[in-house]
Amino acid sequence: MPNNAVEITTICSDLENSQFKLESTAPEEPIISKSATPVIHPLLSQRRSLPRIKILGTGGTIASKATSSSATADYKVDLTIQDMLEAIPDISRICELEYEQLCNVDSKNIDEKILMTIYNGISESLQKFDGIVITHGTDSLAETAFFIESTIDAGEVPIVCVGSMRPSSSVSADGPMNLYQAICIAADSKSRNRSVLVSLNDQISAGYYITKTNANSLDSFNVRQGYLGNFVNNEIHYYYPPVKPQGCHKFKLNIPKNTDSFNFPDVCIIYGHQGITSKLLDMVKDQYAGIVFATMGAGSLPDKVNEDCLEIDIPVVYSKRSMDGMIPRANLPKDANGDSRNCIASGYLNPEKSRILLQLCLACNYSIDETKHVFRGVYGG
Ligand SMILES: NC(=O)C[C@H](N)C(=O)O
């Protein structure tokens, strides 16, 4: 299927077997029917014994193939959701599945337009399904998960993001098990009221807090706030009762169906280092609606760069290079009146999540004070 093509396919039981299926707990094998609009057989919708799950596919390594079974690099996105589902035949015992290919790209190519498409895909599915699964590359999965948590009120419906670290062609590919577990999570009543989740390598995490910390290993995601649960022998064990991220600000976006007409403000990230000057700041300050600095330590930039940041007209968020810790407001630069003006502390947020939060504040036309309030509320910024 070409990139960006949308195909909607429904997996449901067939007419002939429906009587049997009414008496049994679940169909043995999925029957795949293709149609322009999702089709659920009426008997199935009356029976409602299995949860209804929607999968939204975006691509990533989980949908990729390399040229040999030992290769775990230099692979290409090649598989549709349907291909991926064929690797997990037991799934029809767990749920009724419907799926939609929103795009099929490496997550390095996920941009604001695709984010909007994901947003629309979720919004359209929330009322009709018991759970949603999003297949996604791991490189930028944490950003998408953070964006979804910040913009969508999922109510009780779990939204589970899943990827893999090995391509589907590799020995011991992790994709099929990760996808299987993601679907199990989305279908499990214990997952309700937990908002955006990430499933990878047997661990369940809050999408809001997760960060990719290892570029290669199967245990690629880290979450300092702790895992929410895990799988043992494919049983879900949650460590805590349902919980949602503390202080998460929900933005109300008005995204049209045609996402081309929606412009998300441009925010760039500048990486701090010894000897950094204001050269980059000067180059970008008229090109972007906002800037995020990955500062040294807890908000450290050279004095001259701090002075220049206070002088520009756009918001500048002070984030950090360090994986852990936070930027306290006290460390922001201040003018002669002790005012940090357009400079905002990111709190615990890393640069890439700070960027999305600032984009959302700008998209909703928040003032600097409102933006500071949002950062403060979310993560003590
Ligand atoms: N493991 C992965 O999914 C990495 C891949 N480059 C992606 O983000 O699409």
CATH topology of the largest domain: Rossmann fold
- Low-pLDDT sequence parts: 1-46
- Please work out how many helical segments DSSP would assign: 10
Which shape, going by the Cα principal axes?
Answer: globular
Query: Roughly how many Å apart are the termini?
Result: 44 Å
Could you say what the CATH architecture of the largest domain is?
Answer: 3-Layer(aba) Sandwich
Using the coordinates above, name the CATH class of the largest domain.
Alpha Beta
Order of helices and strands: EHEHEEEHEHEHEHEEEEEEEHEHEEHH
What does this structure look like?
Mean pLDDT is 88; it is low at 1-46. By secondary structure, the chain is of the alpha/beta class. The protein is 25% helix and 21% strand. Helix 7 (279-284) links the parallel strand 15 (267-271) and strand 16.
Summarize the structure.
The chain has 381 residues and is α/β, with parallel strands linked by helices.
List keywords for this structure.
single chain, 381 residues, alpha/beta, Rossmann fold, ten-stranded mixed β-sheet, four-stranded parallel β-sheet, 25% helix, disordered N terminus, binds asparagine, Asparaginase/glutaminase_AS1
